What we know:
This protein is α/β, with parallel strands linked by helices. The chain has two domains: 15-44 and 150-320, 3-Layer(aba) Sandwich (Rossmann fold); 46-148, Rossmann fold, CATH 3.40.50.1100. Helix content is 40%, strand content 15%. It contains eleven helices and ten strands. Strands 1-2-10-7-8-9 form a six-stranded mixed sheet. A four-stranded parallel sheet has the order 5-4-3-6, sandwiched between helices. Helix 2 packs across helix 6 (152-168), helix 3 (74-86) runs parallel beside helix 4 (104-111) and helix 6 (152-168) crosses helix 7. The longest helix is centred in the middle third of the chain and has 17 residues, at 152-168. The N and C termini lie far apart (46 Å). The mean pLDDT is 96. The structure holds pyridoxal-5'-phosphate.
Amino acid sequence: MLTRRLSLGTLPTPVEPLQRLSEQLNGPPLWIKRDDLTGLALGGNKTRKLEYILCDAMDIKADCIITAGAIQSNHCRQTAAAAAKLGLECHLVLGGQAPEHCNGNLLLDQLFNARVHWAGEKRKGEDIPELVKQLKAQGKTPFVVPYGGSNVSGALGYVNAMSELQQQCTEPFSHIVFASASGGTHAGMLNGAKLCNMQTQIWGIRIDKSESEGQSFAQRVLELTNDTAKHLGLSSFATEAVHLNADYLGGGYAVVGEAERHAIKTLAQVEGILLDPVYTGRAFAGLLDLYRQGAFAADDKVLFWHTGGSPALFAYNDSLV
Ligand SMILES: Cc1ncc(COP(=O)(O)O)c(C=O)c1O
């Protein structure tokens, strides 16, 4: 099940100690897993998901790929790149309206020749069924990649990533902290930890306060985690297995505030590593605050899982400097 995947990225990604930053933090050593370096179109967590999801597109002999996201969606940028690599047409249903100038991820979407459909307030693919109908009427075979690449196939990318991590480390991490937004990364990590028998505490920092279709985000993560467990033949997870921290939602989705700005500048200036304004900037701000609060014990070993997104920095120049 885990071996059926396309090769789209550059894996494994490095695991590095954040030596200078660890000396400044009041707490145990901090490490980073560099999924910003997964290689496909400037990297990010969607590479791993797409390696599995797009196998499903190949199965139905799709000739075009559709997905959705916000105007600066990393998921859409990486999907557009993967579609280009596979010779498939790509349609992106993006929230907002066509801006006067394209930059950041949106610029890259255009370079990959993605067809952009503007959806106003609707950034989670509400308009996709209509687009599917139109493409089918044109004789095409569309394949829909779910919002954020978060379905069972997408989660398998992070099941595999956990076994990659285990092979890279002699001593396990006591905590993994990362940005959780559509749930696929989280569901994959939980299953991967179970499959590898890792006793790591997995902490998702929430990025987006909006809930989907009457379900809380924690319920959504649990459901996807259990669907993935079923697919892998693993036992199911209890509600308490999903650790989500919603203390850092700040000004709302994609709003950069002082906490995100400080986190981005700290990692850039102390370690020379770029975060992104929407996801990892917020998650890293949360992690810095947890260190400040003394949330970790001296003998813990903490990993920040960098999930990418730095191309969006260029679209946030006004909020960052
Ligand atoms: C850079 C980055 N980090 C984290 C996430 C969240 O991952 P997930 O949607 O699997 O929860 C996203 C989602 O788009 C992302 O772009």
